[in-house]
Amino acid sequence: MNVDEYEAYLRKNTDFAENTILSYVSAVRQYYGMYSVLGHRNLKMYKSFLIENYKPKTVNLRLNAINCYLECIHKERWKQPFIKIQQKPFLENVISEADYSYFKTCLKNDGELYWYFVIRFLAATGARISELVQIKVEHVRLGHLDLYSKGGKLRRIYIPRALRDEALAWFEGRGLSSGFIFLNRSGVRITTRGIAGQLKKFAVRYGIDPKVVYPHSFRHRFAKSFLERSGDIAFLADLMGHESIETTRIYLRKTSTEQREIVDNVIDW
Question: What are phi and psi of 264, to 5 degrees?
């Protein structure tokens, strides 16, 4: 099975997201770019290369891609064990509620309503960036968007009333009555890269740390804020589309900034 056949297999037989498929294919292509022969010794050398050049999470992602490939060609005996990742006791690079509020205000005051609603929808729905660009005017009127994986699993993204009312007024002002909301200048759905790049530019303009301004940061903000207000981690897991509640437990942790503030305020001895 060559790389193209592997990609075709993933598209036909899995419910992986597009980015996951591209990542898996990229890992196998990287391997064959380094080694012409697939073998246990070369696989171990590839793993060593990954460990020396990438972060542990990336190493395991690429090993997962390779192991999946080995399963496809019935070479499971060559599968490489993952490396152990030391779980950090805090969340990193999550935009604070204060910075999110400030960011919204700046965008609105500058008339950047398109981008205002980009971060509003991300932070108020918990949508992934790939899901954000699928939202239509019709979904906003309905109050939710239903998404199905290839395995038939349903994920419902709710659009809260306050956001719904504000967005519908914005649509009316633009003469937008149907179709996708977030389009680029060519009239097609904006790309993930396009959104991420523009958000970084706004972060610099408004003096916000660019490290905390990226699409997934607003999904983290949704989870943190929802859990702080409701305390219902099981419901949050459903809203986030997590397979296991254990994945959602990370939001019970403080950010490093929150930890420092607590330490500074509590420890006076």
Answer: -65, -35
Type of residue numbered 158: Y
Q: Strand ranges (DSSP E) for the chain?
A: 144-148, 154-158
97-266: which CATH topology?
hpI Integrase; Chain A (1.10.443)
15-67, pLDDT tens digit by residue? 888 888 999 999 999 999 999 899 999 999 999 999 888 888 899 999 999 99
Of 22, 21, 73, 13, the closest CA to residue 43 belongs to 73
Q: Which of 136, 147, 116 is nearest to 240 (CA)?
A: 147
Residue 148 has phi, psi (to 5 degrees) of: -120, 135
pLDDT in tens, 127-163: 998 899 999 999 999 999 998 865 677 889 999 999 9
Look up tokens 């999550």; give the residue.
94
What pTM was estimated for this model as a whole?
A: 0.67
Candidates 179, 172, 166, 156; CA nearest to 241 is 156
Instruction: Provide the residue ranges of all domains of the chain, joining segments of one domain with +.
Output: 3-78, 97-266
Pairing assessment for the beta strands 144-148 and 154-158 based on DSSP bridges: antiparallel
Name the class of domain 3-78: mainly alpha
